[in-house]
Write the structure tokens for this entry.
Amino acid sequence: MSENKKWHSLDLGLNKKKEASGACGCGKSQGSCNSQEEELSADEFYEAAINASIGDERQRDGFEQVFDVKMDRRTAFKKLTASLLIGAGAVSTSCSVVAGDDTKEKAQIDWEEQFKGNYKLMNDEEKQGTINRLMRSYELRTGKNISMTAENAEEDVLFGYAFNISKCQGYMDCVSACVEENNQDRNSQMQYIRIHEMKDGEGFKFDKADDNYYHEVPAEGHFYLGTQCFHCDNPPCVEVCPVQATWKEEDGLVVIDYDWCIGCRYCMAACPYDGRRFNWSKPEVPANEINKNQHYLGNRMRKKGVMEKCTFCVQRSRKGKNPACVDACPTGARIFGNLLDPNSTIRWVLENKKVFRLKEDLGTEPKFWYFMD
Amino acid sequence: MSQFKVLKSLVIDSLDTITKGSIKYHIWMGGLTLVMLIGMYCYFIQLDEGLSVTGMSDSVSWGLYISNFTFLVGVAAAAVMLVMPTYILKDIDFKQAVLIGEGLAVAALIMCLAFVVADMGGPSVLWHMIPGIGVFNFPNSMLTWDVIVLNVYLFINISIPFYILFRHYQGKEAMKKVYVPGAILSVFWAVAIHLVTAFLYQGLQARPFWNNALLGPRFLASAFAAGPALIILVLAVIRSFTAFRIEDRTIKKIALIVTVAAQINLIMLVSELFKEFYAPTHHSESAYYLFFGLHGKNALLPWIWTAIPLNVLATIMLTFGKLRNNLKVLYFCCFILFVAIWIEKGFGLIVPGFIPGPYGKIVEYLPTGIEIGVTLGIWALGAFVFTILAKTAIGIELGELRYKDKNSSAS
């Protein structure tokens, strides 16, 4: 393999020797399992712990700790906003006699949500803060509870997907499972997955395919092929976003911060795979159909005027489950797993089947492969 | 301190000028205000219900707004075609026209920004784009480049005429060494704004119709035809309604610029058509859809087959000196050229980029009434801004507006 690559290519670490990386259960977030930390003596450990917890503040005291704090513009702005908030909150609390506590709390949450930062740049504490606010806000508005999480990507995980064209019969169970799982707008019938019905013997003629059929399947003389967001390793949609509201996570998922998106739809124009959807009006899901197990980057409720897309069901996949479409498929055409785990099914498919991807010439390196039996 | 006093007096004087005028002027401004109000009402509906009130969809996700934005960037860039001969080539012919041209650029840029904001799904979180407070994805996203170049160009085009007028207002000559560097910068900047806007589309490997190397140069050629064409029309109006003197010589020189740009534009069109239709590939589908329709879907045919004949006719007529030098014919040519390029760059460029979709699906696009209302409102806003700027500038240039120093008049 040549070392000077002219374009981006997906690195699955297949050429690297890794020592049982996928099967590692030590749970360490830094350093490999065999790192030298185990050999630390008690004293060294104590020193390291102090360093990690208070760091350079150990040498400073009093005034310096409080006022001489290194702060970038973002933090400074945030602190200013926070102090403004406290001030505004105090004023409104003391002045208002009519508004109830709930109204005040709602207003407070709305204000903080409006001026929060980009999720991509938040630390875990801030992430927790925003999901707590969102859950509380939902409770205040509807009287019902939802559970929202903010799990980060795990080490040594890179999600990939394979689609067996021979097996798919076009039942579209994946489509409806996806809509239910991900709380998509019912009015506009938004769907992330499209199943293209193609004629046998004509090859992949997407322009002649039908992705909106209502007849009985499998139809005689046809085969089926599903598309959705391919979670490209070199995603053009991410490059073009002017505010970094969409990005590729460590585990390969291409995600959107719905609250940071400004709705310019540049990513939509940049996606060669029709992988993105826009909320043209306020998305609505009947109260009893809402999936209450949510992830901030996944199936939480969206608002009008923002982008959304398939996240390989981040709320499920980061808990070790399959995406809803994989579990719903009655034919077993859909395979999902960790590309970095040599024992995973997806790796078996990549190594033993003749796989291909769509529009490979564009250099987007999708992590979504097709194959046949 | 005295500068502030002058500024205050300038603002008061210009307010005075722009609120006084003939009955025709008042009807014009009143009409524009009405259209703006209707546009605001339409925009209010759009804010309330979402962009679903427009004709756009997941398939054609940019429409009339972005089309107009693209076209107006070109109009703004065209001011440079007047700046360059005047300040750099020292061709004094254009001096009167330059202030008008720069005023037009300011109005066009304001319209550009308004169109972009109108197209946003979340205008309330636009602050995410402000560097420092938000996250500015520079240099990866071409949109951030566009934001920078447009705003800087707006600044240049406000500050140069402002400086010149501010000096003239006090009865002083504008100092060349102050504004000429700015003028030279604006020449490069004008090319930049248009090239960067073209790159916005050109850089998308997902859309083969845009992803071709000719797009940027063709943007420039069509901009330098349509922009000065509009300037000629505006100068014609100003000439007949005000005492501001614009010589025939000036107009004829601008006409020459329009002609050359239109000719180059036509050559590029031929080159583009040859590439798409001589050896058609999958990537020619959009062009087929635009010019002939695909699978019975042909919403764009009336538009493009209006634009092409108008474009060819105008270019041919302008090519003949005899026709071009007849002002009545010239105005007609400029008008049809302007319309033709507006169609070509809007419906002829933005919309077919999305059709057929990534998997060959053909979903057509037609703007809705609300979309058209907002668009007209923004055009009215542009005309309104331009009228105010031009009326003040003309007042100062004619010497009607002059700073009266109270101290000196008392003594």
Notes: Confidence is low (pLDDT under 50) at residues 17-38, 56-66 of chain A. The first helix of chain A runs from residue 42 to 54.
